[in-house]
Design brief:
Layout (H helix, E strand, L loop, with lengths): L16 E5 L3 H4 L1 H9 L2 E4 L8 E5 L5 H11 L2 E7 L8 H4 L5 E5 L12 H8 L5 H17 L18 E5 L6 H5 L4 H13 L6 E4 L2 H4 L16 E4 L5 H7 E6 L3 H8 L5 E2 L12 E2 L12 H11 L2 E4 L4 E3 L1 H18 L3 E4 L3 H11 L6 E2 L7 E5 L9 E5 L16 E5 L12 H8 L5 H17 L18 E5 L6 H6 L6 H11 L4 E5 L2 H4 L16 E2 L5 H7 L2 E4 L4 H7 L3 E4 L12 E2 L13 H11 L1 E4 L6 E2 L1 H10 L7 H21 L1
Parallel strand pairs: 1-2, 1-3, 3-4, 6-7, 6-9, 7-8, 9-10, 10-11, 14-15, 14-16, 16-17, 19-20, 19-22, 20-21, 22-23, 23-24
Antiparallel strand pairs: 4-5, 5-12, 12-13, 17-18, 18-25, 25-26
């Protein structure tokens, strides 16, 4: 889990300060009002007093009103601007509110005419706290890995330009950060000349601003600037991908110049942005008072951790940058995977609405249409077009059973196979192998996740009652499974039924206390797998019991392929497998069944958790309808703030289960 919210302006909330605004945007933008309120400001219309503040949006066309009122009444000023991790799209393009703000009592952060609060922070703050700098390095790594930037609707899968080019950054004409630097059209022309002269023979790529590419605002360059050596690129390239092939980065005052620093570049700067002058840029027009040398981590810590006000839209609370990265990762992933559209196959009617909510946010999902330019998806192992991506429930699914038509909170897309089919590779398998080694921040996030799952008592379905009295002794839990489930048909070894599993466990553990828990779908009469003589092998049968509490009360889990084994591993229990579930074969379980040889690498538990709960599934917040990180889902499951279907769904699911089981028996 990410750090608890300790936002930099939170202390002001105890004594709210009156903040007067003379720009309609402050009152029309609900998110902006809410963030200022959470930060301790009481937004008002009227005449300010000398102890009040006047809100001014950067150097917008209406900023003069606020400046004039502050001057007239002798009040302080609060300059407000979007922070550098904002949203998927620019405000003009996507009507999306920001997830962060810069609040500055001196001037907008981009104004070099006087030391802003940000510049003062960069010039005077110690910036030597080890924990702070570690957070900065971790955040930089995550932002690069997830290809996050101010506007995150970028596509890292676009074919990269051939390496060896010079990257020149265009900006929107008349942008406030450009004019504040004293730059104009001539500065951009000069920059383009320098880029060619200082790198003779190299191609020059001019990256247009997203608002220019989408037709909202003109830039300083256009098609007339293209030559046999100079090319404009307006596709949604990730800046981080472009940095990889660049031999130099040139900018006037763009945020991309700031990001280039963290990609290892020393950008050539022709304006006076806040990040110039600290030894990390080559400055054409230096700011003489900036004499301090900073490391990349120190620059990031001040500008991205200490200075901004960050907001979590799921919890409606101020937060730290890590939470914003969590959220933007989820939203950017959803856009990148969905914006070209999906055509879905093999989806029962009741699943179509949840699938539309998950995957149709940007382009509506179509169902069972002929092949087109859209990507194809199919449920589980059902028949579908060749190359279709397979979809399945995630491992923190819901409060209630899928067989009862309870909508999922998590779904996984797999372009290689599917996680419960060990006969071939899956995307989850590849992700697990990649997490054999974790960065410290990745280990910490997975560790907090494991702690939260245990502390909150969460499991896949989150249903059941309190535990009954259990016999004393070494307790072994045997989770029953649906015997016609694909994970059994494809992943079980010699032991393939619940009866055979119980008999084997009893034979191997004659003195242990064996607890048998029938699968919820079987107990509900929805699927096959009942064991009439379970009492002959088990000391106690536990039905309709909360799985999380049960796992806390046992010592071991013996299973064929049940996901309960994964939940047991997270609680530090010994797990014995007789099949090849996704968590077997990585050195964490005792495997008595056949496990694919390709899983021949030891992976730490936290690596398995990171792959299975963070990397592999996608999550949807049931309260906001937005893509979200796993941490938000933990909160929803813990509080029960989740809609649940009614009796009609229950009756439909009952019939569905009967027909599904009969069809499986017929196939046998």
């Amino acid at each position: 889990m990410t750090p608890a919210p300790t936002a930099p302006h939170a202390a002001d909330a105890e004594m709210r300060r009156r903040l007067f605004a003379f720009n309609g945007g402050f009152f029309l933008q609900r998110r902006l009002r809410r963030m200022l309120s959470l930060a301790g400001y009481d937004l008002r219309i009227g005449r300010p007093g000398e102890d009040d503040l006047v809100a001014i949006w950067g150097q917008s066309p209406t900023a003069w009103r606020g400046l004039a009122m502050a001057e007239k009444h002798g009040t302080g000023r609060l300059f407000v601007e979007d922070a550098f991790l904002r949203s998927l799209f620019p405000g003009r393009a996507g009507k999306q509110p920001p997830m962060g703000l810069f609040l500055d009592s001196t001037a907008p952060h981009f104004d070099p005419s006087e030391p802003t609060d940000l510049e003062t922070l960069l010039a005077t703050a110690p910036l030597d706290d080890t924990a702070l700098l570690n957070r900065a390095r971790a955040a930089i790594a995550r932002i690069r890995e997830a290809h996050l930037t101010k506007y995150c609707a970028v596509d890292p899968t676009l074919p990269h330009p051939e390496p060896g080019y010079v990257l020149v950054i265009d900006q929107t004409r008349g942008d406030a950060s450009v004019t504040a630097s004293g730059a104009d059209d001539a500065a951009f022309r000069e920059m383009l000349v320098f880029a060619q002269e200082e790198h003779p023979g190299c191609r020059v790529l001019i990256k247009t601003h997203p608002e220019t590419a989408q037709g909202h605002r003109p830039g300083y360059f256009n098609a007339e600037d293209e030559t046999d050596r100079v090319t404009l690129i307006d596709a949604p390239y990730s800046p981080w991908a472009l940095f990889e092939g660049a031999v130099g980065v040139y900018t006037v005052s763009s945020q991309i110049g700031f990001e280039a620093i963290f990609s290892g570049h020393k950008p050539r700067v022709f304006g006076q942005p806040f990040y110039a002058g600290w030894g990390l840029t080559t400055d054409e027009r230096p700011v003489p008072r900036r004499q301090r040398s900073l490391t990349r981590a120190q620059l990031f810590a001040a500008a991205m951790i200490l200075y901004p006000l960050w907001y979590d839209p799921s919890r409606d609370a101020l937060c730290e940058i890590e939470t914003v990265i969590d959220q933007l990762e989820a939203e950017a992933r959803a856009w990148r995977e969905d914006h070209k559209g999906w055509n879905a196959h093999g989806m029962r009617l009741w699943k179509r609405r949840p699938l539309q909510r998950f995957f149709g946010r940007h382009t509506p999902v179509t169902f069972d249409k002929p092949a087109s330019a859209r990507r194809e998806m199919v449920w589980g192992l059902k028949d579908g077009p060749e190359g279709a991506v397979r979809v399945e429930d995630g491992f923190l699914r819901s409060r209630g059973l899928g067989a009862e038509l309870v909508p999922p909170l998590s779904l996984a897309l797999d372009d290689l196979g599917i996680y419960y089919d060990p006969t071939g590779p899956s995307r989850l398998e590849a992700l697990i192998a990649e997490r054999a080694e974790l960065r410290p921040d990745q280990s910490l996030r997975a560790e907090r996740l494991v702690d939260a799952v245990g502390r909150l008592g969460l499991s896949k379905y989150n249903i059941g009652t309190d535990l009954p009295d259990l016999p004393e002794g070494r307790r072994i839990l045997v989770p029953g499974q649906v015997e016609d489930d694909a994970s059994i048909l494809l992943g079980a070894g010699a032991i393939r039924t619940n009866s055979a599993l119980l008999a084997e466990v009893r034979a191997a553990n004659p003195d242990a206390v064996i607890l048998y828990k029938p699968h919820p779908d079987v107990s509900a009469g929805l699927r096959v797998g009942a064991v009439p003589d379970a009492e002959a092998f088990a000391d106690q049968i536990v039905e309709n019991v909360d799985m999380a509490r049960l796992l806390d009360a046992v010592d071991e889990v013996w299973t064929m392929t049940s996901g309960t084994g994964f939940e047991a591993l997270m609680r530090g229990r010994r797990v014995v497998t007789f099949g090849a579930p996704f968590y077997a074969g990585w050195g964490l379980t005792e495997d008595r069944g056949p496990v694919p040889a390709r899983r021949g690498v030891d992976v730490p538990l936290l690596g398995l958790v990171h792959a299975a709960l963070i990397d592999y599934p996608r999550y949807l917040d049931p309260m906001t309808g937005r893509p979200c990180p796993v941490e938000t889902i933990l909160d929803r499951l813990a509080t029960g703030a989740i809609p649940h279907p009614g009796l009609a769904n229950r009756l439909v699911s009952k019939l569905q289960g009967v027909f599904a089981s009969k069809a499986a028996l017929w196939r046998r």
